[in-house]
Amino acid sequence: MTDLRSAGVFALGDRVVNRVGYGAMQLAGPGVFGPPRDPKGALAVLREAVARGVNHIDTSDFYGPHVTNQLIREALHPYPDDLTIVTKVGAVRGPDASWNPAQSPAELAQAVRDNLRNLGVDVLDVVNLRVTGDVHAPSEGSIAARFAALAEIRDMGLIRHLGLSNVTAAQVDEARTIAPVVCVQNHYNLAHRGDDALIDDLADKAIAYVPFFPLGGFSPLQSSVLSSVAAQLGATPMQTALAWLLHRAPNVLVIAGTSSLAHLRENLGAAGLRLPSEMLATLNRVGRSE
Q1: Which residues sit opposite 101 in a β-bridge?
Q2: Predicted pLDDT of residue 224
Q3: pLDDT > 70 fraction of the chain, expressed in percent and rounded
Q4: For the chain, what is the domain count?
Q5: DSSP secondary structure letter of residue 29
Q6: Among candidates 220, 217, 214, which has minimal Cα distance to 247?
Q7: pLDDT tens by residue, 2-15
Q8: CA distance 188 to 87
Q9: Nearest to 69 by CA among 93, 105, 51, 53
Q10: Cis peptide before 237 (omega within 30 of 0)
Q11: pLDDT band at 217 (very low <50, low <70, confident <90, very high)
């Protein structure tokens, strides 16, 4: 069994987490809507993740909606002292499974209450403001009012730390004038490299960068180069893609999600992979060549 600590740790405010965590989105039903096809299997995945050393779980109450948080509570409550649960607010689900913005101060406050209730906690470890841009890409514009609303809730003692999701570098800078930012969660992976400069800037500021869709999301990564390097390592392509992220910068945290125990174990195995410099150089060319 891979020791997740072998990939290092990083601080989210006063919470120190292993750099390999778990994303709970895929525990909900098809399209991240409704209950899972296999509720017992979903609970087993969560318990196995924590048993194998995961102490950073990413979730949101709009996954399902409410489904993943309720599963997390059923599987893991009362939570281990070292477990950090990061959630996000800024959207709601329509009855047709649509993803709809919910970014007014009242809507953000309601989302925080929903997360508190469904996770069964009095204080949320980290809350990310999910900014509605171009679905999975950020767009410029002020986020000051929205982030200030969350900062007020944090000051009430209901949130420990704040983060951002789907944002630009300028929005990160703007938010940091209002309250500390402990993490940024944007679309990034081996083939989607638009945030390279942002990752390096955040590393200098000791802010975590948490890629969503680290394995391509709903369209899994496919690359002949990736497959070739994985074969040389004796690993799977997905393990290799996650290992590349861990090598990318010390502030990168991976939260690959799955509803499969086999895939969970495969993903966690990435923590033990070491990529020689020549393999890193080869993989670095994927985002520019495929």
Answers
A1: 91
A2: 86
A3: 96
A4: 1
A5: S
A6: 214
A7: 899 999 999 999 99
A8: 19
A9: 93
A10: no
A11: low
DSSP secondary structure, 229-240, as one string: HHHHHTS-HHHH
User: How far is residue 171's CA from residue 181's CA, in Å, rounded to a whole number?
Assistant: 11
Query: What's 175's DSSP letter?
Result: H
- Dihedral over Cα of 283, 286, 289, 290: its sign: positive
Give the chain's end-to-end CA distance (angstroms, integer): 33
- 3-state SS class at 285: coil
Structure tokens at 264: 């969970």
Amino acid at 135: V
Please list the active-site residues: 63
Handedness of CA 221, 223, 229, 234 (dihedral sign): positive
Using alpha carbons, list the distances in angstroms from residue 3 to 140, 254, 272. 40, 15, 7
pTM, two decimals, is 0.96
| Segment 239-273, tens digit of pLDDT | 999 999 999 999 999 999 999 999 999 999 999 99
Q: What residues make up the domain containing 92?
A: 4-289
The answer to whether the CB of 182 falls within 8 A of the CB of 56 is no
Euclidean distance between CA atoms 186 and 243, whole angstroms: 18
Distances (CA, A) of 242 to 193, 212, 251, 277: 14, 12, 14, 16
Residue 160's pLDDT is: 98
Instruction: State the CATH number of the domain containing residue 239.
Output: 3.20.20.100
CA atoms of 114 and 181, how far apart (whole Å): 22
- Say if CB 71 and CB 29 are below 8 A apart: no
